[in-house]
Amino acid sequence: MAGSLDGKTALVTGAGSGIGRAASLAYAREGARVVVADVNVEGGEETVQQIKEAGGEAILVHADVASPEDTQAMVAQAVEAFGSLDCAFNNAGISGGRDRLLTAEYREDDWDRVISINLKGVWLCMKAEIPQMLKQGGGAIVNTASVAGLVGIPGTVAYIAAKHGVTGLTKAAALEYAKSGIRVNAVCPGYIQTPMVQSIFEEIDGFEERVASRHPIGRLGEPSEIAEAVLWLSSDAASFVTGHNMPVDGGYLAQ
Asked: What's the predicted TM-score (pTM) here?
């Protein structure tokens, strides 16, 4: 049975773990050739290995999304390896820190780091991806935003600002390239069971239970549940969807 992305090339940043790894596996399952991009080479290699063991095709690219040179080279390597770039999932990101500092207390170096990776990094990836997709006559881009890109959460000012920036960037780019055949959307996950989130839970007693209770479904999400939304937004099944910031949040934003 043919997959929904047979013959296409998908690029995933932050693919060495969590949501990025789950999305990479989902793309491969649907027939895409996957470019696994991450600064974490060991994690990226594990993702590539899992794809190959499942019968898929993938390559690893070491890339820092905050680097213009790395993001341009990442796309060039994808095209060199597979001949095209049809889907891009700009997912790489970091947390806003564990200190839960208020706006006036937030450290400038932490602000710069979070904005550089979580917002500027998405823009740099799109800046590299869009020209290639224009050459090909179209493509699909999905960015990772967050419920934190749609509401405010105290104590995470840089993360909130970055993710709100991603939702705005997604809308602006979608309007700019809609007539060129490039669809641009974002997923807005709630709290998902990823290594990054788990590391925070381990440092704050009772935090996991409090976070889970914020979702009406009563639990955290799984990376695979976000991956399925990404897969749909990347496929022709979502051909009339662009500029959409899609919550995948267990009902978090319905409250």
From this structure: 0.95
- SS3 track for 116-159: HHHHHHHHHHHHHHHHHHHHHCCEEEEEECCHHHCCCCCCCHHH
Instruction: Look at 37 and 213; give whichever has higher pLDDT.
Output: 37
User: Domains in the chain, ordered, with CATH?
Assistant: 9-194+223-246 (3.40.50.720)
Q: Which helix (H) or strand (E) holds 29?
A: helix 18-29
- Give the active site residues: 159
Rounded-to-integer distance, Cα 191 and Cα 212, Å = 8
Which among 248, 114, 119, 95 is positioned nearest to 172, based on CA atoms? 119
Q: Does position 1 have pLDDT exceeding 60, yes or no? A: no
194 confidence band (pLDDT: 50, 70, 90): confident
